[in-house]
Amino acid sequence: MKNIKEATKQFLELKQKTCNESGRESSEVIVIGASKTQSIQSIRQAYEGGITNFGENYLQEAEEKISQLPSDITWHFIGAIQSKKSKKIARMFDWVHTIDRVEIAQLLNSARPKELEKLNVCVQVNLDREESKSGINLEEVDNFLLEIESLDNLNVRGLMVIPKPKDNERQRLSFKKIKNKFNELKKNYNELDTLSMGMSADYQEAIAEGSTMIRIGTNLFGPRQ
Q1: Could you give the CA distance from residue 98 to residue 134 in angstroms, rounded to a whole number?
Q2: pTM, whole model, 2 decimals?
Q3: What is the pLDDT of residue 1?
């Protein structure tokens, strides 16, 4: 069995090295353990290795994990959102990275308990217009933000993207395109501070182009069974 605790420590060292090479502070880049299908035991090992942020794709799977794992974990919802599940997602998670419909944003906003802090959200961009992926087109982002900026229980933090896999140089260009849009948006939305981009195969290119959150599964937990 893979020693997840040790793998996590090794990956955090690699992330530190990548940040140094990119002229960035390691603290600027949060590692989210992509823990879909992982057991509570596996997640606990990654937590003991130094990860305190985890991302889940499925609500039902996440419920047990959130109830049994340490309370100082920050939970991110990184999967597609079904309307009927938005109420629970709004109550259970600290972040949602996959906002791509105004209706979903409105449902999350209305379901977020007043006693909790605002729900942190990212708008998902479908950069390569892939039919198999969720997200809005890049040129739609401005209007989308206008439509959701009045939702009082949401804290719109930035953009999330999963580009189509490419060679390293072209992947950097994809991430650069998102970063350029992000910088453009910040002129009107000073509170934007998050670029959720980069996974196990391309986190180095993402960090080089300004990612602030990378979603890492394989490098921590090993290949999915």
Answers
A1: 8
A2: 0.96
A3: 45
Mean pLDDT of the chain: 96
The 10s digit of each residue's pLDDT in 106-126 is 999 999 999 999 999 999 999
- Tell me the three-class secondary structure of the chain, residue by residue: CCCHHHHHHHHHHHHHHHHHHCCCCHHHCEEEEECCCCCHHHHHHHHHCCCCEEEECCHHHHHHHHHHCCCCCEEEECCCCCHHHHHHHHHHCCEEEEECCHHHHHHHHHHCCCCCCCEEEEEEECCCCCCCCCCECHHHHHHHHHHHCCCCCEEEEEEEECCCCCCHHHHHHHHHHHHHHHHHHHCCCCCCCEEEECCCCCHHHHHHCCCCEEEECHHHHCCCC
What structural domains and CATH numbers belong to the chain?
Answer: 4-19+27-221 (3.20.20.10)
CA nearest neighbour of 149 among 102, 193, 81: 102
| 205 confidence band (pLDDT: 50, 70, 90) | very high
Closest CA to 75 of 42, 97, 60: 97
Average the pLDDT over 153-157 and give the result. 98
